[in-house]
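Late entry, written up from scratch paper. The run itself happened at the end of the previous shift, but nothing got recorded in the book at the time, so transcribing now.
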Amino acid sequence: MTPPYGGVFVARKRVMTADDLRRATWRMAHEIVERNHGLDGVVLVALQTGGVPIAEALAAALLEIEGVDVPVGSLDVAFYRDDIGLRPVLPEAVTDIAFAIDGAVVVLVDDVLFTGRTIRAALNARRLRPGPRRAAGGDGRPGPSRAAHPARLRGQEPAHPARRGRRRGRRRRGPRRDGEVKHLLAIDELGADGIAEIHRLADAFVEVNRRPIPKVPTLRGRTVVSLFFEDSTRTRLSFETAAKRLSADTMTFSVGTSSVKKGESVRDTIETIEAMGIDAIVVRHGSAGVPWQIARWSSAAVINAGDGWHQHPTQALLDTYTALGHLGSLDGRRVAIVGDIKHSRVARSNIAAFTLLGAEVVLVAPRTLLPPDLTDWPVRVVSDLDSVLGDVDVLYLLRMQRERMTESLVPSLREYARRFGLDRERAARLGDGAIVMHPGPMNRGVEIAGDITELPNVVVTEQVANGVAVRMAVLFWLLGADPVPTHEEEPADA
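Output as recorded:
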């Protein structure tokens, strides 16, 4: 049998023959009809991945029995499981519910025997909400919770042990099960396979972000610190939103109101914050190399949110993710990066990321806005924007970073806009399917005219939206497979 929706089947033990399964399916189908007095409003929602073929078999049996074609959907509960840190996640196993469930009789279908773990995860997914609470023990209603009869628990999930006399231990921090703490410091460290892995995870989180309540308990109990020594709007808010949607706790550091103003060093700041108990540090600093130094000082995972002119790996991840969504593949595609290359960490990370994924990168800038040495850069350089407009698949515009300039590098902003800015006439000369990107913030009227930002091929706001999903993927990639919390037992109270 082919695994559904990118899922994986793992053969363990044969417990039923094909005839046994067919008879069981028919019995379940008849029970669904009897319990609901027909099939009015009944829908089947299968839990990925093993529940999908069972739900399809049930739907076929119901069609034959009652002549009713019952809708079938699938639900991926990977990010809602309470054992997420102990099992692999299959981001290709998607949620596909193409019908309304409000007011419907939802039959959850799974292939797991004697456990309620995946069903609990499905109810927590927010797509499927339990009905209104009713008093326990009434006619046809279940008994009070935790009232299971011990004799009926044979072969089933054991009851939770008594918590009296137990004390919650401190969560293990630091090394993961493979013995090393993961960091994301530069895009080159990921390679093409690592970029693809982050993108696959982002696909799952894009679906999460489309839900009415875009939140999953994946990183519940983890703490993520935003440590920004430079001003930021998009990156800082994007990371904080990503952490909160994964149910992580967040701490925000603002240099303007911190002890750095009193002379505290970066190392002392890191040691102070880490003493509070943290799992990840998202750091931005004006000096290149600071995230690497923090990774040596700290046992938490470190994410580089921008260091000087050097690197900005999550921006490159979200940019390549957005471009792939429009172009399908970057192999052989042409990407033009236009503007202030010299002072841009975004340009350096994007050159590496697009090149790793097979794209050809061309830099378009005046000589004064290029790095002094491009010998080892896998790029082509031109100084005429008009010469490449019709040939590129991605036109990536950079802002003039005047806060990093110590000298006058262009005659004037008006002259720069005339030679390297994108106006409506230049936008019309772009090829079919070409997209326009910008990392933000935009200087309207300089690198891009204000009247073209609403064109359908300008994907700036889509980059921002994808940034949340990609950063959710990064946080999960770094923290999601850590060991689960441990508990220390103490003698019970006398």
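The CA atoms of residues 426 and 464 lie 24 Å apart.
(Scratch paper discarded after transcription.)
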